[in-house]
Amino acid sequence: MTEAKAKFDEMFDADGSVRPAYAGYCEWFDQQDQSWLKRKHGEAESSFRKTGITFNVYGEDEAEERLIPFDMVPRTISANEWRRLTRGIEQRVSALNAFIYDLYHRQEILRAGRIPTRLFRDNAAWLQQMVGFTPPGKVYTHIVGIDLVRTGPDEWYVLEDNARTPSGVSYMLENRETMMAMFPELFSQVQVEPVSTYPRQLAKSLAACAPPACNGKPNVAVLTPGIYNSAYFEHAFLADQMGAELVEGSDLRVIDGRVQMRTTHGFEPVDVIYRRVDDEFLDPLSFNKDSMLGVPGIMDVYRSGGITIANAPGTGVCDDKAVYSFMPEIVEFYTGEKPLLPNVQTWRCSDKDSLGYVLDNLEELVVKEVHGSGGYGMLIGPTASKKEIAAFRKKLQATPDNYIAQPTLALSTTPIFTKKGLVPRHVDLRPYVLVSPKGVDITPGGLTRVALKEGSLVVNSSQGGGTKDTWVLKD
Questions:
Q1: Which of 130, 194, 263, 275 is deepest in the core (most CB within 10 A)?
Q2: Residue 440 near residue 94 (C-beta atoms within 8 A)
Q3: 311 upstream amide cis, omega within 30 of 0
Q4: Quick one: pLDDT at residue 42?
Q5: Sheet of 266-269: strands edge to edge?
Q6: Whole-angstrom distance, CA of residue 309 vs CA of residue 133
Q7: Which overall architecture, per CATH, does domain 347-407 show?
Q8: pLDDT recorded at residue 59
Q9: How many CB atoms lie within 10 A of CB 465?
Q10: Cβ pair 257, 298 in contact under 8 A
Q11: Coil, helix or strand for 203?
C-alpha cells in the first residue's frame, strides 16, 4: 500500500504506518493480486446495476436514473471509538425528540429564552396541526440520520440532523452484502459488527409504536410517492426486507375512522405507516390540496389515535440549519448535560454582526441555505470562482435569514480504490438511529459517503459522491 497524504487520514498515520483499526484489512489487502482486485471492483458495479440500486436526478436531461458509485475499500471504526460515538448520538437524538414534543406543547425552551421564537414564527416545517397532539409512545423521530464528520483522531462533529425522512439506509445494507459476497474470506479474518439486523429492528421499532386502535399484531406499511421518486428503490427494498406492504396514496383510504389498505380480500386497516412522503403532500385536506401522493383525512385519523405516522409530521423543524446552530443549547436544556458530540462552528446570517463577518470572509467559508439539502444551494468559498462569490454575496445581502455559514473543515480522508492504487478522498458518516418507547437502537456503522473527485468536500450522491461499506470492529 502507498501512504495517503492528508491532514488526517483514517487509515494511515503521519509517518505512513497503518492505524490499528485498519491493520486486519491492510494485511489482507497486501496479500491480494491487484489485477484480481480491479476485476472485483468492476463486478461490484455490475452487481449494483443488476440489482437496480439507482437514484433519480431531477432537473437533468441526461439519464433519469444513475448508479451511485461504490468503493470497495471499507471505512473502519474501532469498537472503542464507536462506543463513544453512540453515547453522543443517543444523547442528541433523545434531545431532538424532547425538543419536538416541547415545541408542540408548552414551548418551555422558548419561554426560557434559550432559543428565539423567530425560528418558528415563519418556519414552514412547524405544523399548526400538531399543536397539543402527542404521538403514540411520545415518539416523534422514529428514524433519524445524524451526519458526522471527522477532523482528527478524537475529533468528530455533527454536520446535520436528519429527523424528517432520512434516506440511504438501503445502500448501507447493500454495500455490506456486496462486500460479503465478493470477499467472504475477509470477514473471517476481520471481525465486524453486522448491519443486516436493521430491517428486523426497524419493523420491531415501528410495531412498538402502534396506536391505541391497534388490535393484535400491528399492520405496517411503507408509503412511497411512487416509482419516479429518487429513493423509490429504497422504499421497495425496506418494505420487502421488513415484510411490510409497499403502498402509494391511491392504495389507501379512510374507512370507518381507520386508514385502510386495498388488498385482494378487500380493505384492511393499517396501524403504522412508515411514510416517505413529505408533510406537504401527506394529506390534501390538511396541507397541499392538490396533492395526489397522500391520503385525504389521514391527519384526522392520526390525531384521533387510529394510526401511527413515522416520522411524525412536523419533525422537519429539526432539519432546519438555523435550528441546528442552537443544538448545543437544545441538548443542554433537555438533558442537563453538555453535548458529547459538538456542532461545527456556525454563523447565523440573520445576525447582523455574523452577516458582516461572513460577507468579509466568503472566500474561506461554506455557506448553506437554512432549508437546503443534497448539496444544492451552497457556496464552498475556497473552490468558488470570483463570479460565483459575487453572485452569492448578492443573495446573502438580499435574504440573510435564509443562510448560515461554517468554516471549511479539513474533513478526514479514507482511501478509495483506483486503477493507480489507493488514493485519499474526503468522507462523512450517517449512522441510522431507531427510536421507540423501548429505547434507542443505533446500527453499528452507517452509510459512509465519499467525495470521489480529488479535493472535493461534497459527498452527496447528487453531486457526484459515492458510498463505502462502514465497519465497526468487534472487541
A1: 275
A2: yes
A3: yes
A4: 85
A5: 252-255, 258-263, 266-269
A6: 13
A7: 2-Layer Sandwich (3.30)
A8: 44
A9: 22
A10: no
A11: helix
